Amino acid sequence: MIRQLNSDDSKAIHQLFLEAYNGHWQWSEMEISQSFNKNYYYYWGVYCDQQLIGVAQLTLLFNEAELINIAILPTHQQHGLGKQLLQAALEQLKQQGMTQCLLEVREYNQPAKVLYEKLGFIKIDQRPHYYTDTQEAADIYQWKGNDDDKNFSH
């Protein structure tokens, strides 16, 4: 099951990101909770047996969305859940007027890049030495929503 999340889910979101990012998640539970008070942060979650196993965090300003984070618990990866989750989030944002979505991804994060490309994202730019921990570049991807996108339908 995939559903849009709300501030009541802040603790579960925080725990999921901590586990998925091996403790390297920077937002506190309070920061997540407070982000729901801003009209441009959106979260979607995917559940298995009533347990939150994946989260997509996006912003929407006017007609442009940005994927801030997407994470699936390691024990549930490689089953297509990330694709389903991101598809659901983008479909709902399209209904709210979104016409494009941007994201940044580490240049060597091949599994994520494969997922994004399957959904019709294309690489449009690169930011050299973007990540301070590794000096790795960030690849910038863009998705332009249109109704005849064959990669995006279920």
UniProtKB/TrEMBL annotation:
Keyword Cell membrane (UniProt): no
Claim: Membrane is one of the keywords in the record: no
Domain N-acetyltransferase: 1-147
Chief location of this protein within or outside the cell: cytoplasm
UniProt-listed InterPro entries: AcTrfase_RimI/Ard1, Acyl_CoA_acyltransferase, GNAT_dom, YpeA/RimI_acetyltransf
One Gene Ontology MF term: protein-N-terminal-alanine acetyltransferase activity
Protein location: Cytoplasm
Cited PROSITE patterns: GNAT (PS51186)
Organism whose genome encodes this protein: Aerococcus suis
Family: Belongs to the acetyltransferase family. RimI subfamily.
One Gene Ontology term, aspect cellular component: ribosome
Protein name: [Ribosomal protein bS18]-alanine N-acetyltransferase
Physiological role: Acetylates the N-terminal alanine of ribosomal protein bS18.
Database matches in SUPFAM superfamilies: Acyl-CoA N-acyltransferases (Nat)
Catalytic activity, as annotated: N-terminal L-alanyl-[ribosomal protein bS18] + acetyl-CoA = N-terminal N(alpha)-acetyl-L-alanyl-[ribosomal protein bS18] + CoA + H(+)
Pfam family, one: Acetyltransf_1
Classification lineage: Bacteria, Bacillati, Bacillota, Bacilli, Lactobacillales
Keyword set, alphabetical order: Acyltransferase, Cytoplasm, Ribonucleoprotein, Ribosomal protein, Transferase
Known EC number: 2.3.1.266
